[in-house]
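haha ok so turns out i had the wrong file open the whole time. this is the CORRECT one, sorry everyone. sequence first:
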Amino acid sequence: MAVSAYDELPKNAANFVALSPLRYLERAAHIYPHQAAMIHGTRQITWREKYTRCRQFAHQLNQLGIGKNDTVSVLLPNIPAMLEAHFAVPMAGAVLNTLNTRLDAKTLAFMLDHAESKLLLVDSEFSTLAQEALALVKHQILVIDVHDAEYDGAVKDIGFIEYETWLAQGDADFEWHLPNDEWDAISLNYTSGTTGNPKGVVYHHRGAYINAASNIIASGMIPRAKYLWTLPLFHCNGWCFAWTMAANGGTNICLRKVDTEQVFQLIAQHKVDYFCGAPIVLSMLINTPKDKQIAFSHRVEVMVAGAAPPAAIIEGMRNIGINVTHVYGLTETYGPSALCASQAGWSELSIQEQAQLHSRQGVPYPLQDGMKVIDPETMEPVPHDGHTMGEIMFRGNIVMKGYLKNPQATEEAFAGGWFHTGDLAVCQPDGYAKIMDRSKDLIISGGENISSLEIEEVLYQHPAVLTAAVVAKPDPYWQEVPCAFIELKTGYELSAEQLIEHCKQYLARYKLPKDIVMTEIPKTSTGKLQKFILREWAKQRAEQQTG
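then structure:
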């Protein structure tokens, strides 16, 4: 077969460059050198200064012998060092692993071991937690202490040097390089571990670059926007907004923790345009005492994920000048990979009707190649009838490389050429997807994924427990909380309080059961627990307790 003249035009250095969000930082430093890149309390760092600091950071990593495909872990809140790590670590060729600060020491130790982390950056608030985790780790890890002026607690250094001192020793003119291949790993994020240990989700430079841009399109982000960090940066690299804000040339407003009064003040003070979070963040804002609330005169947009925003939240947010957009995604899809895109005329409907429309997971993100509700048996799309159940599946550049050191799970996740989310849904006549149930036993509480299986495993460790089943119970504040149903062994007595104390030894606080019911658990004839009945019981208990 003759070669086409079109095919004789090859890729070369002039017409093909690896996609990487690192270019966003370099560009922002060149175009907006004096624009504030980060504001943290009274401290401001410009884009030129941030670029310089990241080059120093990357140089220092190389000086420690950390380079391509080495893992650098961080246990940090949403502070400048965390944002700098998102660029400096991949500048050095390494892979960034942001650790969830809400986890327990045992889980963190597993992640540090599994990732083979070479270096750990630790904020003073989490030094004790880090020390406990490091005591369980099977290999040696270098530690750097990060002091933050906005932290007013006790400082206990556990590392060999403090971050700013270490950074100052770096080369401000360090010549970093783009990855040779845009498929190279840029970050490692761990799932909640629904079936055993957490899985390490690997992102590539190409996906991070594309989703950062996709965020701008999906949100309609204005140039040089102000973004408030109410969303933890350890969640999917802050849904890639750490890189988005460099592409936008805007300003990151840092926030150690969500304090509603401070959120109102920062939005008003800095004219914040955007923030993200779980519904609990929105619920906290609208339930703030009226004398502490501020009705904003400028337009504020919020992206919410983790659970559908109810009518009361949509209405409450609009009353204070904030517009809500529902997005959907998973750790495996770089955070948001779909959104419930508003249509003309929706704003004319009642709040209840709007909430029904906005509760859906919606349509693919602008730069995601495909999102469909598919029959997992036939791998054919389900009809757009709003009734036929299938599984939401994704394909495209905003999908992980795979699970670190877990080829079987990777193969299963990508079966049939699509990423299987495990979320069961229907496709409605307008083409919007709506989740009807979860095939994984996940509880989404305050935006955090909690594995019911993990809690059950701990409950079964108590000698008095015969059978344990954990389901999600609706909660007006957290959206969902763990509810445990317990059958005791014959001759044993145990109170709910005693069982909670047992769980505290093994589980992070947010994973603890919030309701424990001692009862006979319904089972099938083969002995399988009937969780659908327990979910209904939990729902009834929630209604009785709130009604």
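Residues 13 and 59 are 25 Å apart (CA to CA).
again sry for the mixup
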